[in-house]
Amino acid sequence: MNSDKENDQEFNKLVAEQYEFFTHSEKRIATFISQNRDEVAFMSAAEVATRLNLSEPTMLRFAKRLGFDSYPAMRNMLQAKVRNLANHSARIRSSLDELRNTGDIYEQLVTSEIDFLTESLQTLDRDAIKIATDLLRTHDRIFVFGLGPSISLVDQLDIRLTRSLKHVIPLRTSGRELIEPLLLMTGNDLVIAIAFHSVNPYLELVLDRANEFNAPVILITDTLGDLIGRKATVTLASRRGPVSAFHSLTIPMTIINTLLLALTASDQEKIMNNLDQLDQLRESVLRTSNPSNSKKKN
Fold this sequence. Notes:
Layout: H1 8-18, H2 24-35, H3 37-40, H4 45-52, H5 56-65, H6 71-102, H7 105-123, H8 126-138, E1 141-145, H9 151-163, E2 167-171, H10 176-182, E3 190-194, H11 201-212, E4 217-221, H12 225-228, E5 234-237, H13 250-266, H14 268-289, H15 291-297
Parallel strand pairs: 1-2, 1-3, 3-4, 4-5
């Protein structure tokens, strides 16, 4: 591999381009790397193989599938990314070390959030935010998918996008209640998929349905960018911490708030007029439910 390819974006691209052709074992390797990038960068092929109950030749075939001469060559690319991030955030991280190690639970949690928010300043693609904002602006009907803890993010988008005059179809349940709304999807719709750590069958169903109609997809994630690949039109990815650790929704919530503010700024007059109407409707409801208030004013 030449030096131009030794960066994280290129590695993500390589995985995305090959993912649909991977064997089951290779998909497991790709998932493990995406979820444990910092750790894998300093593990040997034998160590990763042992963790996944695979063979070393399988690790080598995976690396060669991506175009590397060897597994160590692939690992060098991963190490370059880790060192780059460490250099960017070293100063801030060092100033937080004492709180991280000696503070109470609240201090440790806040410190961790600051760490990953700081990292996101370096890793979150600003051009991707612009593309996602433009997709929000130009599509009136939006399917928003998220399960488990992500349901609160779906609810946030549902409320805020509706206030921005968008028709939102939330997809926050599994089974039939998720499948039936997908029958309404067309190529004129937009899909926002929120998912972390693993690709579940319902996420695959939503993405495949969107791809079937060529409906654009905004993916909000932490580690799944490589695995989703070309199924997403634009990916907004930023880490929330190791897979085994507690994860809050601070990072994805910040990404969502960024999109919503950017959308409002892009069509401020129209959206603000709608919010004014919302306030008027609220006042009307209050007058109806408390007629004594209106009598006092008269």
